[in-house]
Design brief:
Length: about 110
């Protein structure tokens, strides 16, 4: 009779820098090429940066939350999700274009 194969432990997910970079690149690529026919202006580059930072933050938080759920550490999962949401909101507030804010005010009034 053959011995049973040894089970390998599950690989540890990459949390932190590598995950952030993956999200940053994905978010920035999507943002850079959406509805853009002309070269990017300074405002558009700032939008791409904002979306990249938000994508990296969201992916890192989501990965940390998923890892915590696998460990059945639901408090850590909730904390990771809340920290990710807060990070995305902070980035939005810090890097939002002034013109975008004015346009949002007009949209609400209409």
């Amino acid at each position: 009779m053959r011995p049973l194969p040894r089970l390998m432990p599950a690989p540890t997910p990459r949390i932190g820098g590598a995950t952030f970079v993956q999200g940053f690149v994905a978010g920035a690529c999507v943002s850079a090429f959406q509805d853009q026919a002309s070269p990017l202006s300074r405002t558009e580059l700032k939008r791409v940066l904002r979306h990249g930072l938000q994508g990296g933050t969201a992916l890192t938080a989501g990965s940390a939350a998923a890892h915590a759920v696998r460990r059945q550490d639901y408090a850590a999962a909730l904390l990771a999700a809340a920290a990710g949401a807060a990070g995305v909101l902070i980035i939005e507030r810090m890097l939002r274009a002034r013109g975008q804010t004015e346009q949002e005010k007009k949209d609400v009034q209409e």
